[in-house]
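Internal tracking record. Fields below are filled automatically when a chain is submitted to the structure queue. Please do not edit lines marked as system-generated. If the sequence contains nonstandard residues, flag them in the REMARKS field before resubmitting.
Queue: standard
Priority: normal
Entity type: single polypeptide chain
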Amino acid sequence: MKTKTSYLKTCCIVCTYQPNLSDFKKNLIQFKKNYDFIIIVNNDKLFNVLKFKSKQVFIIDNNENEGLSIALNKGIKLAKSLNYSVAALFDQDSFIPDNFNKKMLKNIELFIKKEPHVNVALYGSQFIEKKTNSKAQPIKISNLRIISTNISQDNFYDFSSLIITSGSYIPLDRFDELDYFDENLFIDYIDIEWCLRAHSYGYHSVLFNNINFRHNLGDRYIHFHGRNIFLNSPLRIYYEVRNSLYLFSLKHISLNFFITNHVKVILKFCIAMILDKNRSLNSVKYFCLGYFHGLIKKMGKLE
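SYSTEM-GENERATED OUTPUT FOLLOWS
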């Protein structure tokens, strides 16, 4: 990647599935303010996304829900074919402020000048969860622990083991070196797997502390021992437990991370089943199905 901000030709990629139309319109306005070209990859055949098409907005309209990983890869390949150098990836419910892109590119330029010898797979920014108003923190993986660390007060960035897809800036040539997002996963763990794959190749993930956006992690949450635990639908429980098991089969996933993360997935499910007033037997059914499919490596979309 070149060091001059003016040369960072950035394409915005947004994936949609059953969006809240009012929120999506507001978010799209902000994307248009920030980016000259936006690719919307739509996985919802009932969502009339074509009405948003313009010279500034290109639509990839899938006939069915092909999954987030496939949708992201389609957008990335199109951006590469159009000679963009960086992909800015977003979920449909992420709301960015004015000048978000300019600030991100300025941060990237400053980081490259300060750390010219550090190989970076992706750059991310702080996100504020909409419902809880809580700010994400850098994550470190060490000694059978996945730790949220304090945000640096002396620097505009931190290194983080994991960064979510939404709000991330990825130099497109990284996909030539590291390959694309794993389409076996369909949804959930896509960003985690790619971050850990990049780290296994000696790349770093950089989280900027001086810029943030608003993002929605889930529909509901419960508060437990000072932490917010976000609750998933039965179908998302299926993908979460299945994909957490699938990671064990990947050579770039350490045993340390697998054990730590998988225990957290099981504990989260148990706590939700005890404390969630809206819990259902469907959640147990999909948890068990996800566990079984994870063991036999039945991946992709659950038909």
